[in-house]
């Protein structure tokens, strides 16, 4: 690792031998383990699937408050009404669609993010890391949402319409029989509208938060911190990333719920029916309660799997190196 960094510094000096200044190098010391991207994809799949499964009851509350805002005007009212009318099992409706759907999304989101970050880094270099984060997360999220969309279509209807289907097994043939293949991708555009901004903000916030904590709070490199401390940084950065991302993507989340439950026939009609202010405020408190912890859990599980597989924790550090040139 140290030898590799020294070689990188020497290369930079070689390109800047006519002057002096400060060069910012990346300190994301990835020793390429065999199957690196596969490990990241599997880690993303397991972390996203299990964490989303764990918060299924909160997701049921959120979806019902979005689809039936008058009937369920508060979290407490939604909980007590569902419990009284449908029983405790209502809070686990759609669990299979969440586990498999968000597992598929997580595998694409994390695995392809690592791949695209490596790809764009080789093309764009280290001149603007934020651009690399934006492009990598956006590219990965497109594939992730195509994988998620069919499962999301089943999940939302199962959770908000008790008589639609019991779960994933009977929901798929029923949706296909009534709407065809289009029914599974009815909400793809608003889903992208929700998850693309969320993913871009989440990954960028996470990367910059990790860099900030190591350089300004701990004032140490990753190598000088224990694995427990590294995973602690991952959790803090993960919560910050999830909270910022949930606020940005809340309007599109309300539109997705409205379209899938046929409260509106088009995107524009959904926006008009919900209202501009309600797009940002409806179900926002419970969504922050839901997304913040679940994203934290995802990053924690994901980085734990990476560490156990011999990979470093996520997030890169910007290292400033003073380059003194030859005076002529």
Largest sheet descriptor: 2 strands, antiparallel
Helix content: over 70%
Q: What would you report as the Rg, rounded to the nearest angstrom?
A: 22 Å
What is the distance, rounded to the nearest whole angstrom, between the alpha carbons of the first and last residues?
34 Å
The number of distinct β-strands equals 2
The proportion of residues in beta strands is under 5%
Number of helices: 12
- Within the largest sheet, what's the order of strands? 1-2
**Series of secondary-structure elements, N-terminal to C-terminal:** HEHHHHHHHHHHHE
- Pairing-aware structural class of the strands and helices? mainly alpha
Poorly predicted parts: 1-25, 27-31, 320-328
Q: Kindly report the average pLDDT value.
A: 82
Assign an overall shape. globular
Describe the overall structure:
The chain is mostly helical. It contains 12 helices and 2 strands; from the N terminus they run H-E-H-H-H-H-H-H-H-H-H-H-H-E. It has helices at residues 2-15, 36-54, 56-67, 75-86, 95-124, 129-160, 168-179, 188-218, 227-260, 267-274, 276-281, 284-308; strands spanning 21-26, 318-323. It has a two-stranded antiparallel ribbon with strand order 1-2. Helix 2 runs antiparallel to helix 12.
Could you provide a short overview of the structure?
This protein is mainly α and 328 residues long. Helices cover 72% and strands 4% of the residues.
Features:
two-stranded antiparallel sheet, disordered N terminus, single chain, 72% helix, 328 residues
């Amino acid at each position: 690792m140290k030898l590799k960094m020294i070689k990188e510094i020497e290369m930079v000096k070689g390109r800047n031998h006519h002057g002096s200044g400060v060069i910012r190098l990346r300190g994301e010391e990835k020793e390429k383990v065999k199957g690196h991207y596969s490990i990241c994809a599997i880690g993303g799949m397991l972390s996203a699937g299990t964490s989303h499964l764990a918060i299924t009851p909160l997701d049921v509350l959120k979806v019902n408050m979005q689809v039936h805002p008058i009937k369920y005007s508060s979290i407490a009212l939604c909980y007590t009404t569902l419990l009284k009318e449908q029983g405790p099992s209502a809070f686990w409706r759609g669990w299979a669609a969440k586990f498999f759907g968000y597992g598929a999304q997580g595998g694409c989101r994390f695995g392809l993010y690592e791949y695209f970050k490596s790809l764009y880094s080789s093309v764009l270099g280290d001149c603007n890391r934020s651009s690399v984060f934006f492009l990598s997360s956006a590219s990965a999220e497109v594939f992730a949402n195509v994988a998620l969309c069919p499962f999301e279509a089943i999940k939302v209807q199962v959770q908000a319409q008790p008589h639609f289907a019991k779960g994933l097994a009977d929901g798929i043939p029923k949706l296909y029989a009534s709407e065809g293949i289009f029914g599974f991708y009815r909400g793809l555009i608003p889903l992208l509208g929700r998850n693309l901004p969320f993913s871009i903000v989440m990954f960028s916030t996470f990367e910059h938060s990790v860099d900030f904590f190591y350089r300004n709070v701990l004032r140490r490199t990753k190598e000088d911190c224990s694995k427990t401390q590294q995973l602690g940084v991952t959790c803090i950065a993960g919560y910050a990333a999830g909270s910022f991302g949930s606020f940005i993507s809340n309007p599109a989340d309300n539109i997705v719920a409205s379209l899938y439950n046929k409260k509106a026939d088009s995107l524009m009609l959904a926006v008009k029916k919900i209202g501009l202010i309600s797009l940002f405020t409806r179900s926002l408190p419970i969504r922050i309660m839901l997304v913040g912890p679940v994203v934290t859990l995802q990053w924690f599980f994901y980085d734990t799997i990476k560490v156990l597989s011999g990979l470093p924790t996520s997030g890169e550090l910007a290292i400033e190196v003073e380059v003194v040139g030859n005076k002529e």
